[in-house]
Amino acid sequence: MDKKQYLTTSEFAKLCGVTKHTLFYYDEIGLLKPSFLGENGYRYYDWRLSSTVDLISVLKDTGSSLKEIKTYIKEGNLEDLKQLLKDKKRIIDKKVKSLTHLTKLIDNTIIGIDNEKKYPRDPFIEFRDESYYIIEKFPKDFTIKGYSETISNHIMYCDDNYYGNDFFIGFSISADKLPSSELELYDFVHTRISSKVKDEKLFIREKGYYVVYYYEGSYESLHIANQRIIDYLNEEGYEMIGYSFEHEIVNFLLTSNPDKYITEISIQIRKNM
């Protein structure tokens, strides 16, 4: 047998990104045997076995014991292995989503820190392009339990469908209910998404002119912000249509003082008829 076609234990360990002792142990428990033993007792490996080492590493990282892995590999039941890999892929996908969401949270928090002093402190009007949201309506009969469950269901739905990695959740209330900001009057929770999708929960905000207000104050005082918006629009000759969309810019992650929270409020408008 031509040893030049095979790798020594050290060479194979380096290729696979594991230690020699790991390969020795895999050999000892019968999980991964070398391709052959030389006359000197040295182990030699076919480089193609690296894919098996990769598979072992993936299964270990997702919680499988070496005993379980050995059973799947040695018995060669492809259907069982296929199902195991699908199960492990779901675990990996969940971890990836969690880490992606955490990364976005960190990025947005940094942006919030950088921009905290830059947000205008008075209402203003600007043109906005069409935007897209996944929404979950609140039950008509308000209870704090139902309110919490709706938010939880919304987050789970967005996670399951890979939404919500770019933006965070916010809350919407019909403009005709303003200036009130009582919880029981809110219509739905929303998460903005980057592009239009085919989903029964999709909500499209039309392009057009919007009043925008970066309000500094506690959540309990949002009715004050809403009244300021109404007064401003009355002076400018506009009326509100559709829904008010609220989402946090500065929250408890950036300040321990609720009076320093900043909430972006945006509402589509049109000239008074």
UniProtKB/TrEMBL annotation:
GO terms for molecular function: DNA binding; DNA-binding transcription factor activity. It comes from the Bacteria. Keywords: DNA-binding. Residues 6-75 form the HTH merR-type domain. InterPro entries: DNA-bd_dom_put_sf, MerR-type_HTH_dom, MerR_fam, Reg_factor_effector_dom_sf. This is Multidrug transporter activation protein. It comes from Haploplasma axanthum (Acholeplasma axanthum). The gene is mta.
